[in-house]
Amino acid sequence: MVITVASGKGGTGKTTVAVNLGLALSKAGQPPVHIVDCDVEEPNAALFLHPTLEEREEVGQLIPEVNLDLCTFCGRCAEVCQYSAIAVVGQRVLVFPELCHGCGSCTLNCPEGAIREKLDVMGVLEMGRAGPIAFAQGRMNVGEAMAVPIIRQLKRQAIPEDHDGQVIILDAPPGTSCPVVESMRGSDYVLMVTEPTPFGLHDLRLAVQVARDELGLPVGVVINREGIGDEGVDAYCEEEGIPILMRIPLDRRIAEAYSEGIPMVEALPEYQEAFLALYREIAHRVGVEVAP
């Protein structure tokens, strides 16, 4: 089962929920757990899990490299590029890596075979273990514009092809843009973490539109820092038929543990059962049988 933990905006407790859900399952001896930090611009799940990273691999996108000794400057490569990532000006061929989507059309259509693809390194993938938990994260190089290729390759490598009987928890980037869509794609359930404030509600609406309305994925909500704000999130969820699966109160002890990098289930063991109950509820809604 693949569960994506998402939020409309940053700072709502998304990583807290993803990490503690995984730790609670692992502590209970539940099916093998994978935690994949897809927030490649600012991964932070490792701060709480302290994994031992055993593999590191550069990752990026294939971009065209032109052999000018073979090129006849016919311009066919520029004609077929849908993103204007390659241009032919007189006796020069210009490549714009930041516009390239790595589709390979220019290489396939070059009549002289003058174009090959080379890897444009955009970041790294790191994989290892945090005790019994399989952990993976991506880190995008500073200045890169596109996170999607890194997330796509991170998921391809970190999620086993046959993951029946395993639990894959994806910690998605904040927001509702392409990196979030790529993180959610293929998930069995999307868990939205939000705050009960007007700002939280605004961003929750946008995130639900992406996950449920555009991708057709089932969604549930975790309300974090309950005790602040108003009843707007509750009213919205009731109106939309979205289940609220867990409520985490505004609690100074949680904030102190977070600031020291200590997961909730370790600092406050009473949350162990709460996160297990959250998992059981998700599994029930997805139709997956779990041990009682």
Secondary structure: elements and pairs:
Blueprint: E1 2-6, H1 14-27, E2 33-37, H2 46-49, E3 52-66, H3 76-80, E4 86-89, E5 92-95, H4 105-109, E6 115-130, E7 133-140, H5 148-158, E8 167-171, H6 178-184, E9 189-194, H7 198-214, E10 219-226, H8 232-240, E11 244-249, H9 252-259, H10 264-267, H11 271-286
Parallel strand pairs: 1-8, 1-9, 2-7, 2-8, 9-10, 10-11
Antiparallel strand pairs: 3-6, 4-5, 6-7
Low-confidence stretches: none
Structural class: alpha/beta
Give the H and E element order. Answer: EHEHEHEEHEEHEHEHEHEHHH
Radius of gyration: 22 Å
Q: How far apart lie the N and C ends?
A: 17 Å
User: What is the spatial order of strands in the main beta sheet?
Assistant: 3-6-7-2-8-1-9-10-11
- How many E-type strands? 11
Count the DSSP helices.
11
Instruction: Report helical residue fraction.
Output: 25-40%
Oligomer: single chain
Strand content: 25-35%
What is the mean pLDDT?
Answer: 93
Largest sheet: 9 strands, mixed
Morphology? elongated
